[in-house]
Write a structure and sequence with these properties.
The chain is mainly beta. The protein contains one helix and nine strands. It has one domain: Porin (Beta Barrel). 8% of the residues lie in helices and 65% in strands.
């Protein structure tokens, strides 16, 4: 009876150890890429995607391997450009482009599958905050000669400098002796508005959205 109990304890202990194998891998590096931006306006403003830059520093901590899943957390501090480019099919000669610059900090769960040295597939998801820095715009002639186009946003300043929302993405990572190379596609959807959206305001929704494609290089500080 004692022997049987001892064996059960040993197997149980081994099983628990294998379920969550501890890791203490801290990595630091840089990232860069492009944003394909648009804005969720209500009432609608007709747009096409506006390309902007994104780039900054990345820190990642891998805490454990749970079955075949590698678990960790990642944080970034990026300089990122958002905005919108207006396009009206009925008035193709009209042009208006607004570019807004932010410092952004995404806090992401990092879940990866694959070899710890070699190729991995990963997913990222988590909240993101941003702080508005400045903006600029270019506008073409002819807006005062047409009807049916929304123009209230053209001369309106950013009302709310704090931006927050949800970011999620996926990609592949190559882990080598020279460092870790990541390629990722990510989507950001703001839950906040950068214009006032009370009943007295024209817009009831004015939020950033972006599809991001980026590359990241990380080097391990601890394993």
């Amino acid at each position: 009876m004692i022997t049987t109990t001892a064996l059960l304890v040993i197997f149980t202990t081994n099983g628990v150890a294998q379920v969550g194998e501890q890791r203490h891998n801290f990595a630091l590096g840089i990232n860069g890429g492009v944003n394909l931006n648009s804005v969720s306006f209500s009432p609608t403003v007709r747009q096409k995607n506006l390309m902007g830059y994104t780039g900054g520093i990345t820190a990642r901590y891998i805490s454990e391997r749970y079955f075949k899943m590698i678990c960790g957390a990642q944080v970034e501090v990026n300089l990122s450009q958002h905005g919108w480019s207006e396009f009206y099919e009925d008035f193709p000669h009209l042009s208006y482009v607004r570019k807004t610059n932010y410092v952004e900090i995404p806090f992401l769960a990092h879940l990866a599958f694959g070899k710890e040295r070699g190729m991995q597939f990963f997913i990222h998801a988590g909240p993101q905050i941003g702080f508005f820095l400045n903006d600029s715009y270019t506008i073409g002639d002819g807006w005062d000669t047409v009807t049916g186009a929304t123009v209230e946003q053209h001369d309106k300043k950013i009302d709310k400098p704090f931006d927050y929302g949800i970011a999620a993405g996926a990609g592949i990572e190559l882990r080598t002796g020279l460092g870790n190379f990541l390629v990722e596609g990510r989507y950001y959807y703001a839950l906040s508005d950068f214009y006032g959206t009370t009943k007295k305001d024209y817009f009831s929704r004015a939020a950033n959205m972006a599809i991001t494609v980026k590359v990241t290089y990380l080097f391990d500080l601890s394993k």
